[in-house]
Amino acid sequence: MLSTEENLRYDRHLRLQGFGLDAQLRLKQAKVLVVGAGGLGCPVLQYLAAAGVGTLGIVDGDTVSLSNLQRQPLYTPADIGKNKAETAAERLKAFNPLIAYEVYPFFLTADNAIDLIARFDVVVDGSDSFATRYLVNDACVIAQKPLVYGAVFRFEGQVAVFNYKGSATYRCLFPEPPLPHEMPACSEAGVLGILPGIVGMWQANEVIKLLTGIGQPLVNTLMTLDLLTNQTNCFRFYANPENLQLDRIRPVEWACSADTVRTLKAEDFLRWQAEQKPFALLDVRTEEEYAQENIGGSLCPLSQVEQQFVPPAHTQTVVVLCQGGVRARQAAARLQQLYPQHEFWVLEGGLNALRQYQAAHSK
């Protein structure tokens, strides 16, 4: 049953014809995992917490940066450098202390995804990389959990429900991932700040429908929206039986290559600098990010790295960095294939990790 405080808080749900007490109790008993507490994850978490979902799991190893604040209203400038999962949970607890929060301040990987996802009733994909989307999809299929998908790009968004009672999966809709250079990240292409909010709320709506049984979820259906034209469309697609029989996570090919690059921790990078080890520094962020903050080195955005990178003549060692490490991994993997005579190292955790390390050791 609901407590007196819960009855007051969820009063408008309880009065809603076709929803009522039964649906609210289903929400209270449910456990939802949100992968990523960024542009999509923020509105998903805020509205599921407001709706009274009993347990919210938040998994994200990233930290808050200034450029996040344009579309991630759970955070403030005082949160820059803090872990997103921990900070989001803190904000949500203050907003609704009647529900439980499980915080996982790390990135989802092939090693932890299945066990983590198996603990929840529904999974929401709020990630911003294709490698993570395929990882989440595969883990949901293996653990037999429904997946609510959302994606944003510039002015356009997508929403769908996968793996629900034998329905199609993400791999049924997108059998093969694009290569990294074929689809720039939001950090390169940009995104209208309100777009993740709209898509995230739509994802939250799909979660509520799945948990309560109301309405018709977006099963075997991809909904797209364009904020410039105010058009929404729905496209039907169907399950490929082979994609429903996964028994292991299948990392995408280029993600595997990115996982095998050499990595350099922040403390080792600073030691290399102190020892004046000969290396070249390559920054693969955007011009705007570089202008906002940089530690020197050559600028070559990820989308242009294969065409514009010039191998240094004074050293065979190149350290590649970005804001959080993901783009640097992709760039290093591609450049290592093009220039096998060089050693490409990725600054692990990117500029965020470097700033965190310096702050922690400056006291």
Name its key features.
five-stranded parallel beta sheet, 363 residues, Oxidized Rhodanese, domain 1, Rossmann fold
Annotate the secondary structure layout.
Elements: H1 4-9, H2 11-14, H3 20-29, E1 31-35, H4 41-51, E2 55-59, H5 84-95, E3 100-104, H6 113-117, E4 122-125, H7 130-143, E5 147-153, E6 156-162, H8 170-173, H9 186-189, H10 194-212, E7 221-226, E8 231-236, H11 253-259, E9 262-264, H12 266-274, E10 280-283, H13 287-292, E11 298-299, H14 305-308, E12 317-321, H15 326-338, E13 343-347, H16 350-360
Parallel strand pairs: 1-2, 1-4, 2-3, 4-5, 9-13, 10-11, 10-12, 12-13
Antiparallel strand pairs: 5-6, 6-7, 7-8
Q: What does this protein structure show overall?
A:
The protein has helices at 4-9, 11-14, 20-29, 41-51, 84-95, 113-117, 130-143, 170-173, 186-189, 194-212, 253-259, 266-274, 287-292, 305-308, 326-338, 350-360; strands at residues 31-35, 55-59, 100-104, 122-125, 147-153, 156-162, 221-226, 231-236, 262-264, 280-283, 298-299, 317-321, 343-347. It is globular. The model has no long low-confidence stretch (mean pLDDT 91). It contains 16 helices and 13 strands. The relative contact order is 0.11. The protein folds into 2 domains: 4-254, NAD(P)-binding Rossmann-like Domain (Rossmann fold, 3-Layer(aba) Sandwich); 260-360, Oxidized Rhodanese, domain 1. The strands form 2 sheets. An 8-stranded mixed beta sheet has the order 3-2-1-4-5-6-7-8, with helices on both faces. With 363 residues, the chain is an alpha/beta fold.
